Amino acid sequence: MNLGLDGKVALVCGASRGLGRAIADELAAEGATLAVCSRDAELLEATAAELDALAVAADLSVPGEPTRVVEATLERFGRLDVLVTNTGGPPAGTHDTLTLEDWDRATALLLRSTVELTTAALPGMKERGWGRILAVTSVAVKQPVDNLILSNSLRAAVTGFAKTLAREVAPHGITVNTILPGYTATERVTELNRANAEREGVDPAEIQARLEASIPLGRLAEPPEFAALAAFLASERASYITGGAFAVDGGWVRGLL
Predict the structure, then answer these.
(1) Structure confidence at residue 12 (pLDDT)
(2) At what angle do helices 41-51 and 18-29 cross, to 10 degrees?
(3) Which of 67, 73, 95, 157 has the fewest other C-beta atoms within 10 Å?
(4) What's the confidence (pLDDT) of residue 180?
(5) Global pTM?
(6) DSSP string covering 166-178
(7) Distance (Å, rounded) from C-alpha 237 to C-alpha 92?
(8) Cα dihedral value 28, 8, 109, 250, nearest 10
(9) CA–CA separation, 141 vs 158, rounded Å?
(10) What are the φ and ψ backbone dihedral angles of 116, each rounded to 5 degrees?
């Protein structure tokens, strides 16, 4: 299937590892020109070298940094067609264990960064009458996960932003969708397994086994399986799909919608 991404310029955030790296790999394989962003400058440079991409190291939780990343992309390539918003997750915890400062940091990381990246990218997309905005969230927006109150709350806020924005920008030929990873073989899931194991006083292997048993397909996803959907939603072929929230979870979510 020709996805029509050859010659498109894509900015993938959180691209030095995990889901972001997998999305960057997939878009590059489809012929897109890439800018990649991450806080880990050294790892990002290695990623950019492998993908022949522009590397822009930044902490997207810092106000002004998301705008700088978009501007650097526009300065190098003259346009931005596909924006993939994606950051690392906030710390695990419950209402009783987290502070207001934790909420402020998580809000900046997950919600504000998405809004600022989008705000910087939209003018050029509107001018050209074409654009794709993809926000990586979590299946937690459909079925909250215990001990992840920050992620459950703020990724749901990103979903509300994306759904509303999709209606506002549709007349400009711009689609906005969210992609919801389930349990995937990434460093983030390994970290959460450790946190939950410590909280319960059990071995992380037990937490891992429980996760696998809760997934109808019986295993964690591999990042490329998630990235395949991202590439399709970024493509010409997905021109009539907007405002959606798409889970890649092996059947883990029990809800109908």
Answers:
(1) 98
(2) 20
(3) 95
(4) 97
(5) 0.93
(6) HHHHGGGTEEEEE
(7) 37
(8) -60
(9) 9
(10) -70, -40
| Burial bucket for residue 203 (CB in 10 Å: 0-12, 13-18, 19+) | exposed
Single out the residue of 49, 48, 50, 68 nearest to residue 58, CA to CA: 68
CA dihedral sign, ordered 43, 120, 157, 61: positive
Confirm if 226 and 158 have CB atoms less than 8 A apart: no
| Residue 165: both structure tokens together | 């924005």
The Cα diameter of the chain in Å comes to 55
Question: Quick one: how many helices (H) and strands (E) in the chain?
Answer: 9, 7
Nearest Cα to Cα of residue 185 among 219, 229, 143: 219
Which residues are CB-contacts of 29 (< 8 A; sequence separation ≥ 6)?
A: none
Rounded CA-CA distance 41/141 in Å is 30
**Cα separation values, 54 from 22, 108, 121, 124, 164, Å:** 16, 24, 16, 19, 31
CA proximity to 3, closest of 36, 26, 25, 23: 26
From the first residue on, what is the mean pLDDT of each consecutive set of 10 residues in the chain (257 residues)? 90 96 97 97 95 97 98 98 95 94 97 98 98 97 93 97 98 98 86 81 87 93 96 97 97 90
CA 165, 20, 173, 139 dihedral sign is negative
**Gyration radius of the chain's alpha carbons:** 18
- pLDDT the model gives residue 1: 66
DSSP label at residue 148: B
Q: Which two tokens stand for residue 180?
A: 């919801």
